[in-house]
Design brief:
The chain is of the alpha+beta class and 193 residues long. The protein is built from five helices and ten strands. The chain has helices at residues 4-7, 33-48, 55-67, 71-85, 101-115; strands at 93-94, 98-99, 116-119, 122-125, 136-143, 147-154, 157-164, 170-175, 178-183, 189-191. Strands 3-4-8-9 form a four-stranded mixed sheet. It has a four-stranded antiparallel sheet with strand order 5-6-7-10, with no helix packed on it. The chain has a two-stranded antiparallel ribbon with strand order 1-2. The termini are far apart. The model is unreliable at 1-15 and 18-23 (pLDDT under 50).
């Protein structure tokens, strides 16, 4: 595996764990598990050999961990980003203490990804919720279709959910293993819990 460090400049050259090509849900059938294992192997190798330990890099790994539903991995890198690289005003500083916006924007993206992950035309709620955030709320996150979400959770379970429908008029949401479809007129607020 020592040759991997020379081949992989950052974390992973393949992008199948992120964005439109994420290895989740329906798209998983189109991907081989061998490819998934290889990408995780590369990521874990890089992390165990000193990669992923600057602000932007911690944010990136935190986002990837949230995307695959790894709550512990998400929180480990998210907390390290705040602890090791944030100033008292929460600005991310890249060694040698130079402001770098990547860590700031990446931290926000990772936090939202942990709570509201969107793929396969569905918003997956609390998919990578860390135990340290067992209770909380999130208000004002928009998902594709223009839908606005407001959610609360207690002891790791969703306790309140409102969707203000966007321009598409239909939203799909998943939590606790169940998919729910909400339809109505744009601008209408529907309380699901």
């Amino acid at each position: 595996l020592s040759h991997l460090a020379a081949v992989v400049q950052h974390k992973i050259q393949k992008l199948s764990m992120r964005g439109a090509n994420c290895l989740t849900g329906r798209r998983r059938a189109a991907q081989t598990f061998q490819k998934v294992r290889q990408e995780f192997c590369v990521l874990r190798y890089r992390l165990s050999h000193g990669g992923g330990h600057t602000g932007w890099s911690r944010a990136w790994v935190s986002c990837l961990s949230a995307r695959i539903g790894d709550a512990d991995g998400f929180y480990e890198h998210f907390a390290a980003l705040i602890r090791d690289f944030a100033t008292v005003s929460l600005l991310d500083l890249h060694p040698p203490r130079i402001f770098q916006i990547d860590g700031n924007l990446g931290a926000v993206a990772a936090g939202i990804e942990a709570l509201v992950s969107f793929y396969d035309d569905t918003a997956h709620l609390l998919r990578a919720l860390p135990r340290q955030w067992s209770s909380g709320s999130l208000d004002g996150v928009r998902i594709p279709g223009g839908h606005l979400l407001r959610l609360e959770w207690k002891n790791g379970s969703l306790t309140s959910l409102e969707v203000t429908l966007g321009y598409s008029g239909t939203a799909r949401l998943e939590w606790s293993g169940q998919v729910h479809q909400v339809s109505g007129t744009p601008g209408e607020t529907v309380r699901l819990l």
